[in-house]
Amino acid sequence: MLDVFSKCQPRPDVRFAITSGVLPYYHAISERLANGDVIVHGKRVLMAGSNDYLALSTDPRLKAAATAATTRLGTGNSGSRPINGTLALHEGLKADLAGFLQQEAALVVTTGYQANLALSALLASDDILFADKHVHASLLDAARLGQAALRRFRHNDAAHLESLLETADQDKGRLVLTEGMFSTNGDLGDLPSLARIAREHGARLIVDGAHDVGLLGEGGRGAAEHLGVLDAVDVHTLTFSKCFGTLGGAVAGPRAVIDHLRLHARAAVFSASLPPGCTSAAHAALGIIGAEPERRRRVLAAARRLRADLTGLGFDTGLGITPAIPIRVGDPLLCMRLWKELLNEGVFTNAMIPPAVPDGKALIRISVTAAHSDAQLDRITDACEAAGRRLGLIPAQPPALTA
Question: Are the beta carbons of 62 and 281 closer than 8 angstroms?
C-alpha cells in the first residue's frame, strides 16, 4: 500500500545539498544593520538578495507610519474585509492606488500572492486564459483555482500568442496574462505587442506588476508606463513586499471588475485583512514613490553597472535592464555550491533551482537596491569573481589586456 507521505522524500540532489551544507533555503536572518548588511548564522554579510528595490523597508517614514497605525488600531483586524476587517486606512489606500495606476478602482488584500489568486474569480468555464510560460506560481494557482481553459504561450513570444488566439474558440471569453517584469531573469514583458494582439482579438490584458510597479516608468507606475502602454492594461495586480517595503497586495482595474472581486474572490473574501501597520506603511511608500524618482534612477543605474561588471568577468547575466540580475549556472547542485561560496565571501544572494526555474536553468539571482553604495557593488563583484573562479564558472585568470 502506498504511503501518502512517500512523496515527501527529497530528490537526490536536494538530499546531497542538505547533507553537504549547501542548501540555500531557510537561513535565518537575526539582525538587519543600517548599511544593508545582515547577520546570518552569527556572520555579517551584505544582503544582495532582497526585493526591496527602493530601500523603503527600513525608511524611517514607513516605520513611523506603521508604528502610529499599530498604536492607534492594534496589530491585526481579526476579520476579513467583507465582515469586520475593513479599515478607513484600506479605503484611503485603495483610492490612491487606483488613481496612481490610472484605474477606476482597486482592492487591497493581505499579500501579493492573494492579489493574484483573486484573479481566479474572473476565470469562468466559458473563458480561455492565455498565460506566458514564465508567469509566477501564484498566477498559475489562480488558473488552477478558476475554471477557464489554460493555454500557455512561449515566453514573450507574441507570434505564438497570436496563433493561439487565432485558433481558439471565438465564442469564449479571452484573457491574456503576463508580468511587467519577470523576476527570475529580470527581463520585461513584451507589453506593447501583447497589448496590440489582445486588442485585435477582443481579449483583456492582465499584468502582474509585482516587481515593476514603483520601479519603472516616469511616475513609477511600472513596466506598462515605461513601455508606453499603461492605458492598454485592463487589470493590474501588485504586491507591497517589493518596492513598497512592507506586506500586502492589490488588484486595480475597472470598477465593475473590482466590485465583482470584492464579493467573489475567495482569496480576499475568506482571509483576514491587511493589518493597520502594513496598510499605513504601504500608503506612505506610495507617496514616496511619487515624490522621489531619484530612488528609481539610482537603483537602475546601480543595476546597469553591476550587470556590466559581471558580464565583463564572463558570467551570463542575460539581457535584462532591471535590478534583478541572474548569474546563469544551469546545474542545480553547482548553483547551490555557488550560493554557498558567495555566502562564504560575505554576500547573501538567492539560488533559483527547479521547480522555481525549468530543468537545466538554475541560476543565482542578485537583487540591487537603491541603498547599495558603489563600494558595496564592488563587494558583490569581487565575491562573484572569487567564487566563480574557484568553481570554474569563469576563467581562472582574468583575460589579458590587449594593446
Answer: yes
Question: 98-129: per-residue pLDDT in tens?
Answer: 999 999 999 999 999 999 999 999 999 999 99
Which of 299, 245, 213 lies closest to 32, judged by CA? Answer: 245
Average pLDDT (9-17) is: 85
Whose CA is closest to 145, among 124, 164, 127? 124
How is residue 80 annotated by DSSP? B
Q: Residue 311 corresponds to which amino acid? A: T
What is the DSSP track for 240-260? SSSTTSSS-EEEEE-HHHHHH
Cα distances from 55 to residues 43, 87, 246, 352, in angstroms, run 22, 27, 11, 23
Strand partners, 232: none
Strands 235-239 and 181-182: unpaired
Which residues are CB-contacts of 189 (< 8 A; sequence separation ≥ 6)? 132, 156, 178, 179, 180, 181, 182, 207, 223
Tell me the C-alpha distance between 193 and 145, whole Å.
28
What is residue 290's predicted lDDT score, i.e. its pLDDT? 97
Q: Is the peptide bond before 323 cis (omega within 30 degrees of 0)?
A: no
Burial of 39 (0-12, 13-18, 19+ CB in 10 A): middle
349-394 pLDDT, tens digit per residue, is 999 999 889 999 999 999 999 999 999 999 999 999 999 999 999 9
Residues 6+ apart with CB under 8 A from 70: 275, 276, 277
| Residue 56 to residue 155: CA distance in whole angstroms | 31
What is the mean predicted confidence (pLDDT) over 64-78? 97
Residue of 165, 187, 188 whose CA lies nearest to 175:
165
Query: Where in the sequence numbering do the catalytic residues fall?
Result: 51, 136, 179, 183, 208, 211, 242
Contact (Cβ atoms closer than 8 angstroms) between residue 310 and residue 381: yes
CA 303 to chain centre: 16
- Asked if 85 and 78 count as a contact pair (C-beta separation under 8 A), the reply is yes
d(CA 351, CA 339): 6
Residue with cell 517584469: 181
